[in-house]
Amino acid sequence: MHLTRLRLHDFRCFEQVEIVPSATTNVITGDNASGKTSLLEAIFFLGRGQSFRQSGPRPAIRRGANAFTLNAEIGVPDGLSHRLGIHRDKRGIAYRRDGENATTRLDLINTLPLQMIDPNVHRLLEQGPRYRRHFMDWGVFHVEHTFFPAWRRYRRALRQRNRALKSRWPKKDVIAWDAELVRNAELVDASRRAYIDYLYAGLPAQAQRLLGGEPVTLEYESGWRGDDGFGHALAANLDQDLRAGFTQQGPHRSDLRVSVASTKARDWVSRGQQKILTTALLLVQAELLYQRRGIRPVLLIDDMAAELGARYREVLAEEIARIGGQSFITFLEPSLVPQALSDAAMFHVEHGAVAAPC
Ligand SMILES: Nc1ncnc2c1ncn2[C@@H]1O[C@H](COP(=O)(O)OP(=O)(O)OP(=O)(O)O)[C@@H](O)[C@H]1O
Predict the structure, then answer these.
(1) Side-chain half-sphere exposure of 197, counting CA atoms within 13 A
(2) Going by C-beta distance under 8 Å and a sequence separation of 6 or more, which residues neighbour residue 173?
(3) Long-range residue pairs from 207-215, CB within 8 A, at least 24 positions apart, any chain
(4) Separation of CA 62 and ligand 1 centre (Å)
(5) pLDDT one-digit tens code per residue, 147-187
(6) Is the N end or the C end of the chain the one with fewer CB atoms within 10 Å?
(7) Residue 110: phi, psi to the nearest 5?
(8) What pTM value is reported for the model?
(9) Where is this gene product found (predicted)?
C-alpha cells in the first residue's frame, strides 16, 4: 500500500502542488519554513482525517483562500488503487474514498495506514500515559479486530457512568453501567495484552540493530488495581468514585512501562537514545502490521536528523531501508541525508513549490 500521486490545493504555504512519489524512500529537503512538515501533514491528513499539529484543520487553509483540497491515489498490493480526498472549507471537513460521499475517518485510516515519527517522538517515553496508550492502540486497532468495537462500547459506557457520578445520581444508576464496562474492558485488555506480547517478541532483534543490544522490556499495566478482575476493582472502588465524581480505574488509565537495562526509559539520559528507542518501538509496530496483515504502513519521518549524530542517522536509515515500504523523510539540508538513503527519490521544497526527483 503506497501513495502513487499526491495533490495539494491551497494547503498551508502551497497553492497548487502535485508530486509523484517513489514506492520506496522519498527524501524531502528544504530550508526552515519551506513547507517540508506541511507536505507530511497533508499525507497524514489523508491517512487519519486530521492534522498532527495541535491547531486543528482550519488554520491549514492557505492564507487568503477559502478552502483546501487534498487528493491522493493509493496503490494496493493486488494491483487495484483507491482515490482519497479531503476538502475543508468554512462549513467543515469532508472525506471521500473512490468518490464516495459517506466516507469516514475510519475508512481513511484503513485505506492509508501510516506511522509518524516526529522530532518530539521521545515524549512517548517522557510524558503521560496518554501517549503510550495511543501508541499501543494504533497497533492493536490494525491487528486485533475485536479491539475497536469493544473500545468504542467501553468509552460510551464510561461516559454514561461518569455522567451519573458527576451528577451525583443514586448508586444504582452508577452501577447500572458496570456490566457493560466490565464486558468490554476485558476484551480491550485481552487485545492489548496479546498485542504487547507480539510486539515484545519482535523487540530484541530491533533493539539489537538500533540500540546495540541493550535489553528493553515492556510491561503492560491494565489500569486497575488487584488481580481479581476489573469487576472486582470497580466494586471495591465505588465509594471513591462517588466522592471523586468520575471512574478512577479501567483500561482508560492503562499504561505501558518501557525499561532499558531495568531502568525506566525516561530516566535514560540521552535524548538521542530516547529517540532511537522510540523509533525502534514504532518500527517494530510497522513490521508487526506487515507480518500479521501483510500491510506496510507509510512511514512519515519529520526532521530525521534532529537529536541524532551521524552514526545514529546512518543506523536508522539502514533500518528503514531494510524494512522496506514507502517512506517520506525530511531533512533541513542534503548534507544531512545518510548514505543508506542515497538511492531515495529526492524532492526539494522552496517558496511553496516542490522540485521533482533529481
Ligand atoms: N495557512 C497557511 N497559509 C499560508 N502559509 C502557512 C499557513 N500555515 C503555515 N504556513 C507557513 O508555511 C510555511 C511552512 O511551514 P512548515 O512547518 O511546513 O515548514 P518546514 O519546512 O517544516 O520548516 P522547519 O524545518 O522549520 O520545521 C511556514 O512559513 C508557515 O508560516
Answers:
(1) 7
(2) 164
(3) 207/277, 207/280, 209/280, 209/315, 209/319, 210/276, 210/277, 210/279, 210/280, 210/283, 210/315, 210/316, 210/319, 211/260, 211/273, 211/276, 211/277, 211/280, 214/260, 214/261, 215/260, 215/261, 215/262
(4) 10
(5) 999 999 999 999 999 999 999 999 999 999 999 999 999 99
(6) C
(7) -75, -25
(8) 0.91
(9) Cytoplasm
Chain centroid to CA 344: how far?
24
Specify burial of residue 214 (Cβ count, 10 A radius: 0-12, 13-18, 19+). middle
ipTM of predicted assembly, 2 dp: 0.97
- Chain position carrying cell 484503513: 110
Cell 510524558 appears where? 127
The winner for highest mean pLDDT among 134-148, 165-179, 303-317 is 165-179
User: How far is residue 235's CA from residue 253's CA, in Å, rounded to a whole number?
Assistant: 17
343 labelled as ligand-binding? no
pLDDT tens figures, 190-246: 999 999 999 888 887 777 777 777 788 889 999 999 989 999 999 999 999 999 999
- State the number of CA atoms in the 13 A half-sphere of 174 facing the CB: 21
Residue 59 near ligand 1, beta carbon < 6 Å: yes
Nearest CA to 22 out of 321, 335, 333 is that of 321
Q: Report which residue type is found at 14.
A: F
Q: Which of 36, 61, 300 to mutate to test the pocket of ligand 1 (most atoms within 8 A of CB)?
A: 36
Written as one string, the DSSP assignment of 257-270 is: EEEETTEEGGGS--
